Structures are given as C-alpha cells and as structure tokens.
Amino acid sequence: MQKIGLLELANHNEVLRAYILILLESEKVKTVEIFTNKWNFNQVYDFQDNPRINWHIIENVSELLEYELIIKELSVLIQTTIEDESAKVVELNIACKLAIVIHNAHCQFQPFKNIVLNTHPIEFVKDIGRLLKFILIKRPALKRAEEKADILFFPIKNALTKNKKSTKRMLCLPFSVNEEVSYIAFHENIFITIPGIISDKSRDYEVVIEALKKIKNHNIKLTLLGKPKGKYGLQIINKFKKINSLELVCYTSFIPQEIYDKKMRETDFLILPMKEKMSFGVITEKNGYSTTSGNINDMVRYGIPALLPAFYPLNNSLKSVVGQFQNANELTTLIDHWAEGKVYNKIKIENMKEAMKPFDRKELAIIVNELI
Q1: Beta-carbon neighbour count of residue 2 at 10 Å?
Q2: Of 48, 55, 85, 99, which one has the fewest beta carbons inside 10 Å?
Q3: Domain regions of the chain by residue span
Q4: For 37-41, 93-97, 216-220, 348-352, which range has the lowest pLDDT when averaged over its residues?
C-alpha cells in the first residue's frame, strides 16, 4: 500500500476531484496527501473528512518545503496543473517521483506550429507581447517541468498519441470520471443546462441562441450554469433573455459547487456549444485533440445526455448518449426531437449505464495500479 501525492494550485478543482476519485479506488493506494489551496479545498467539500486523505493547505509552491518529510514517503507526486506559480515545483528538487498532467499539448510540445496572431493593429501589438512572454517565461517553465518529470499524464488519448516522441513514460489518465447517472424525469418542464463560464474563449453561444429562436414551444427551462465573463458574458445573457420560447435561469457571480451540483442533477439534457479551437495566449489548441473540454467532464461526471458540435471526437460508448450538430438548424431539429419524444429519458434508461463504463473509477484505477 502506497502514499500518493496530488498538487493543485491553479484552481482546477474538477481535475483534483477526478484524480481523488481514481486514487481512492486503487487497491494499491493507502493514503492520498493533497497539497492545494483553500479555494480548491472548499470546492471538493464532500472529501474534506475522508479518512484516507490528508489535506495540506498551501498557497504557493515554496510552501512544499515545509512538508519535506511527507513528500519523501510518497511513491509519486502528481502535479495536476503546471502553469504560472505551480510550474516552479521543478525548482525544489522534491524527493520522490514526479508526474505532471499535460492540459494543453500544443503549448507543451508544438507551440510554434500553432501560433495565431490577431491582425487588428492594436491587438497585434498585444499579441506580440504575449508571444514574447510565452517564449521568455512560460515556455522555459513548461520545458523544465517536462524535463524534471518522471511521468507525463494526458487527459485524452488523442494528445498522447500525437506526442509519443517524448522519451518520458506517458500515460492517459482522464479527467472524465463518472460518479452518477442522472435520474429519469417526468415533470412538464424540460430542464436544459449549458454549464461553464460564459466566455467567448471556449464556447459558441450564438449557435445556441439562433437554434432556440426557431424551436417549438416545449416548456423549456434553460439554465446558464456559469458566471458571465466581462461585457461579452452580459451581452450573451441579454440575448438569451430576449428569446420568448423559454424560461431562463442565469447567474451574475461565481456559483458555489453545492449549487452547481444541484442544478446539474436537475438537468434533463445538456447543450455543450464548444469551440473547435481555443486560444491560450497566442497558442491555439484543438478541442478533443490537443486539449479536452470541461464540458465533456461534466457530461460524464453526472451521466447526463448532451447535444454538442459534430467536430468533437467521442469515445465510442458516448455516441449512444449524445446528439451532434454542425449548425443552428441541426441543433434546432435535435432540440425539438429530444423534447417532443423525451428522448433524453430513453437514453438514460437504455444507454447511459453502458456508456459510462469506460469512465468508471474502478477501470481508471487500473492505470494507477500499473503506475505504482
């Protein structure tokens, strides 16, 4: 029985949660030592009193030095995010194996093949500044982390397959872990949810707005389950409010995890309007190929049927619990079809449990067992 460490300082509480679930399921893990900040600790509220977890609340990497004796006892320390402050862990010469999680494979392995600069003069100048910051600061930090690590984890197989040139040991350990299957609903209203911060970085809300303008009347209650980011977020909320065919629920500030969980469990089906490409500074990542979407993690975690863009590559098992669209017209057709026949309930009854098997924590724990 081994002790495993998790380090998460970048507020990716959903990744921390997923790896907690996997590690606790492993027959070879005795104790999980978690080094994280107060915010993440509060978000994973239902694990705070778990007897197999020891929590160490820190706000920066240098505080790890205070736990040198604990770290020496670890079989491996898994650093779940290597950006900004957390990238400095490589400077500490920790006394155990180090595994790092690669969120964005283009940034890590092929940044200069995936640079996109804004052509607007003012934005172009800003992008040049971002590029210089990446080259001089972030890129060296990412490479040092890669060189220091003994193991590289990838959340999706596509990113792992395309980057096998590394001499490091490389494993796919997903963020997507199923915890439940959404219940069968028999209410009159149809509860649809779009989870995530309302931002133009990773989601295309316009296609959803256009689709909803043309749907039939189905007593739809739509929840935008995320706070709006800047003017764009507020503008999107206002556009949804103008659609007369639905009742809208939205938020103006951060949503506590307990409320987020409750709203997701009330959902009949999700709409996940992910963008095919996302920019991290001036580096572009391809959704489903070089990076994964938190929306997919939500769908899998709560076991909820979903409608999502056709470009996103799916695990074969998930194809039976989703509908995919290429444009607003196709999305309108899917919403009408799912609403009229309550297709989402049929999916939950007939397909969901089987679809979630590859994301079962027991299956994913096998990867950890092999690692240890």
Answers
A1: 16
A2: 48
A3: 2-177+361-371, 190-355
A4: 93-97
